[in-house]
TrEMBL record:
Domain of life: Eukaryota
Keyword annotations: Oxidoreductase
Protein name stated in the entry: Very-long-chain 3-oxoacyl-CoA reductase
A Pfam match: adh_short
UniProt key word Membrane: no
Example GO molecular function: oxidoreductase activity
TM regions (residue ranges): none
Cellular component terms per the entry's GO annotation: endoplasmic reticulum
Family recorded in the similarity comment: Belongs to the short-chain dehydrogenases/reductases (SDR) family.
């Protein structure tokens, strides 16, 4: 009688297969579950969302999609006239939504700057009624793409960290009391595939690692304190934007499609989630392939993006 089946290796293999199948299925179902975003709506019907870096790309996509889902939107950026133009565009597309703007450069931001924005946001919700229920920490990007870390100046490195990590931390800290006042709050932190650790964009990559880690820690803290705010991190692959000249395709959505996918993931039960299904499919390779192979592939990809930029295209984020 064959005794192979009692070989302990077979049990280990079976357990590994069961675990992998469970993990894969669990992750895949995330894309089928209905969004619970509407739970943040309050009875007055006046729901406010703040989107940082809202004048372009993914941030403007979030602003459009939040308006489409019944939110009034506060657009944040550093350029007042660009913000006003975007607010007008939203007004034309979504006549029932209110929009407001707040202006603050997120680089070298001060305590006073953050406090002013927080007071402006409180004043906006008090003027119109309703609560700030959603904060989308979207602002970010690469200041000096495709550079070795010692090719950065002190200022460039600090700017990259401010844009991607420092401001997100400070604005979240300052706005949490407001977010806790409403029916239910939600914080969405925009991260990147580069959080895994990528060459030639190490400062940006590490800043996004901070975003992931802060997201997890905050979610754990809120769970421990039973606070009424959901925290979710959004892992993002390549997205075609005005500043990122990659070709659109199945794996490269535009900002609005990405934002819509992200809002559809709210309530999916994962703290950090690939917002867009096809980015998740891409991301599986990071989990399944050996790191040496991933590094070879990402190095080739980043070098080709570098060439693209030198050919005159703007490529800033990954
Ligand atoms: N695009 C991608 O492929 C990709 C991939 C992974 C992750 N991400 C992440 O997604 C987020 C959005 O990226 P995106 O590609 O949509 O960016 P984007 O198109 O370059 O837009 C960035 C937004 O941030 C604002 N901004 C930039 N610097 C600022 C500053 N110092 N102070 C205030 N506002 C500032 C910009 O305002 P101005 O209009 O004034 O410049 C704009 O509204 C970022 O966190 C990025 O890291 C993007």
């Amino acid at each position: 009688m064959p005794t192979d089946w009692i070989n302990p290796l077979a049990y280990i293999g079976l357990a590994a297969l069961t675990y992998t199948t469970y993990k894969f299925t669990r992750q895949a179902t995330v894309y089928l579950l209905p969004s619970t975003l509407s739970k943040t709506h309050n009875p007055s019907g006046q729901n406010w969302a703040l989107v940082t870096g809202a004048t372009d790309g993914i941030g403007f996509g979030f602003s459009q999609e939040l308006c489409a889902r019944g939110f009034n939107v506060i657009l944040h950026g550093r350029n007042a006239s660009k913000l006003e133009n975007r607010a007008r565009e939203l007004g034309a597309e979504f006549p029932n939504c209110k929009t407001e703007i707040v202006v603050l450069d997120v680089v070298s931001v001060t305590s006073a700057g953050i406090d002013t924005v927080a007071s402006q946001i409180r004043a906006i919700t008090e003027k119109h009624g309703g609560d700030l229920s959603v904060l989308v920490n979207n602002v970010g990007g690469e200041v000096k793409p495709y550079t070795l870390v010692d090719g950065y100046t002190f200022e460039e490195a600090a700017m990259t960290v401010d844009m991607n990590a420092g401001f997100m931390l400070q604005i979240t800290r300052a706005l949490l009391p407001l977010l806790c006042e409403g029916t239910k709050g939600l914080v969405l932190n925009v991260s990147s595939i580069s959080a895994f650790g990528m060459p030639y964009i190490s400062v940006y990559s590490a800043s996004k690692g901070f975003v992931d880690s802060f997201t997890r820690a905050l979610e754990a803290e809120f769970y421990a304190e039973s606070r009424n705010v959901d925290i979710m991190g959004l892992r993002v692959g390549q997205v075609r934007t005005a500043n990122f000249g990659v070709t659109r395709g199945l794996f490269v959505p535009n900002g609005r499609i990405l934002a819509s996918a992200a809002l559809n993931r709210v309530g999916c039960g994962q703290v950090i989630v690939w917002a867009y299904f096809w980015h998740w499919v891409q991301g599986l390779s990071v989990e399944l392939l050996p790191r040496s192979m991933i590094l070879k592939i990402t190095t080739m990809k980043i070098k080709s993006l570098k060439k693209l930029e030198h050919g005159g295209n703007k490529v800033k984020n990954t």
